[in-house]
Amino acid sequence: MGRVVILSDIHISPTHGFFWENWCLARDFANRAAADAVIVNGDLTINGPDSDEEVKFAALATKSLRGPVLPLPGNHESATNRLAKTRTRLSILSGLLDGTVFSAPIAGCWT
Predict the structure, then answer these.
(1) Order of strands across the sheet with 69-72?
(2) Do residues 59 and 69 lie in contact, with contact meaning Cβ atoms separated by under 8 Å?
(3) CATH number of 4-110: 3.40.50.2000, 3.60.21.40, 3.40.630.30, 3.30.930.10?
(4) Taking the model in full, what pTM does it have?
(5) Helix or strand or coil: residue 62?
(6) 77: Cβ–Cβ under 8 A, 6 or more apart, which residues?
(7) Residue 1 burial by Cβ neighbours in a 10 Å radius (0-12, 13-18, 19+)
(8) How far is CA 16 from CA 12, 19, 50, 62, 93, in A?
(9) Which of 20, 35, 59, 86 is least surrounded, with the fewest CB atoms within 10 Å of its CB?
(10) What is the spatial distance between Cα 51 and Cα 53, in angstroms, rounded to a whole number?
């Protein structure tokens, strides 16, 4: 049986450090678990739709996870009223994570 680690709502940011310690604990646990896959279930950032730098920071931090990493963008990476900006942020995230960001357009929004 395979081992999967699921992390959710990590909310990491270069300007809002209040989640950083939690991220470090979760990252270290996931790396020690030697999982077959790590799923990061949404909300990698705090202000993703408004900050290219925050998306880049979160993507680079996520790259410190061992094994295959499958990030799923959440509402902090999208803005339903700013679809073009959301697509740009998801494109940045996908590019930094070797194209492994999973998202799908639903009724003009990204989930």
Answers:
(1) 4-8, 37-41, 69-72
(2) no
(3) 3.60.21.40
(4) 0.69
(5) helix
(6) 42, 43, 44, 45, 48, 49, 55, 86, 89, 90, 93, 110
(7) exposed
(8) 7, 8, 14, 16, 19
(9) 20
(10) 5
Letter for the amino acid at 17?
Answer: G
Tokens of 71: 């990030």
Instruction: Select from 106, 107, 108, 101 the least CA-distant residue to 77.
Output: 101
In the predicted structure, residue 109 carries a pLDDT above the cut 50: no
User: Cβ contacts of residue 6 below 8 Å, gap of 6+?
Assistant: 38, 39, 41
pLDDT tens figures, 63-104:
899 888 887 777 656 655 555 566 666 666 666 565 555 544
